[in-house]
Amino acid sequence: MKKSIQSLLLISAFMVSAFAVMAGNPDRQGEAGASELLLNPWARSAGIHSMSTASVSGVEAMRINVAGLGRMNSGEFMLANTRLYEGSTLGMNTLGFATKVGESSAFGVTLTAMDFGEIDITTVDQPEGTGGTYSPSFFQIGLGYAYTYENKISVGMLVRGISESLPSSSAFGIALDAGVQYVSGEKDNFKLGISLRNTGSSMEFGGEGLSFQTTAPNDNGNPYTLTVESRSEDFELPSMLNIGLSYDFYIGEENFIRGIGNFTSNAFSTDQLGVGAEFYFRDLVILRAAYKYDLDVEEDQKNLYTGVAAGVSLLVPTKKDSDRKFVIDYAYRTTNPFSGTHNLTLGLAF
User: Which residues pair with 263 in a beta bridge?
Assistant: First the structure.
């Protein structure tokens, strides 16, 4: 037990130190790119503002804290649809699969694609539109691994490929996530989690869309066509550090209330603090709500997701006394501006 706690402290100290080297402040808000890495497609964790750093498990852990990947029964298959910022027509679709390998290891993969709809093509000469349309392609694939030691400490690592492309230009990058979870108590009541997300390579757009043709005179004064390429400035990924705690207060043998607290340090925006709670009823229904706010921030520097989030989960066994369950999760998060974000997740836990 003593060695487990020492290992946890060493890993946690390393992650916090690594983030401190690159941590920013509110003055850098808006300087990072690939902000889709901050979007959470999974309804269960979205219903508490993605603050389940300490308690998240299974497929969703690959978005919040990959250390929780192995804290599932055997495996999970999940599909998620997100209606982003109601009124903006933006959407996101995600597929995830995770499975345990042996008693201590777990692997998982997630695929995420943004949906921008059809956008009118405009030019300088035709600002009202040419009659054609295009749709950007933003795609992510993540591969995660987690190892659990004596059911007390879990550590995990995830590699995520990020692709952003337009019809004539594109960018690609690699992001790394790392996390650790610690569980203690008679019924694993107490949980502590730390995750470092979205560290990795910078990204830069390139392609024919950044070049144009012009004319230039030669030595004899005769013009000729010249293709000029504009260089795009590279941009960093939106790194963040999450530190979370949770505690389960049991009401009888099956039902319990989980209290949640979480601190988020953002390298390119303001830090955030939040609290939430989940009510588990007989492992069939879960109700949740949370509140998150920005620390020491001016009104014009607030993050998009602040305020209230809420959600519900239904877990339907495929047959009596079976560990295999159909899962339906829904969440709503307030946004500023727009009219909130809706998350829906369907899955099978086995």
Answer: 243, 273
Nearest one of 60, 28, 96, 6 to 240, comparing CA atoms: 28
User: What stretches of the chain show up as alpha helix (H) in DSSP?
Assistant: 2-22, 43-46, 61-64
Tell me the three state secondary structure of residue 207.
coil
Reading the block at residue 342, the tokens are: 């809706």
- Give the span between the Cα atoms of 84 and 56, in whole angstroms: 22
Candidate from 28-37, 104-113, 199-208, 279-288 with smallest mean pLDDT: 28-37
User: Is the overall model pTM greater than 0.85, yes or no?
Assistant: yes
3-state helix, strand, coil in the chain (%, to 5): 15, 50, 35
Q: Please give the structure tokens belonging to residue 149.
A: 């030691």
Q: Choose the weakest-confidence range: 64-73, 222-231, 331-340.
A: 222-231
Q: Tokens 């982003």 identify what position?
A: 84
Give the list of residues 6+ apart from residue 9 with CB closer than 8 angstroms, or none.
none
Rounded CA separation 5/12 (Å) = 10
Cα(264)–Cα(249) distance, integer angstroms? 24
Q: Which domains does the chain have, with CATH numbers?
A: 2-27+45-201+237-349 (2.40.160.60), 205-236 (no CATH)
φ/ψ (deg, to 5) at 133: -135, 165
Distance (Å) of CA 149 to CA 5, 7, 102, 131, 155: 11, 10, 12, 59, 8
- For every residue of 144-180, which 3-state class applies, written as one string? EEEEEECCCEEEEEEEEEEEEEECCEEEEEEEEEEEE
> What is the reported pLDDT for 164?
96
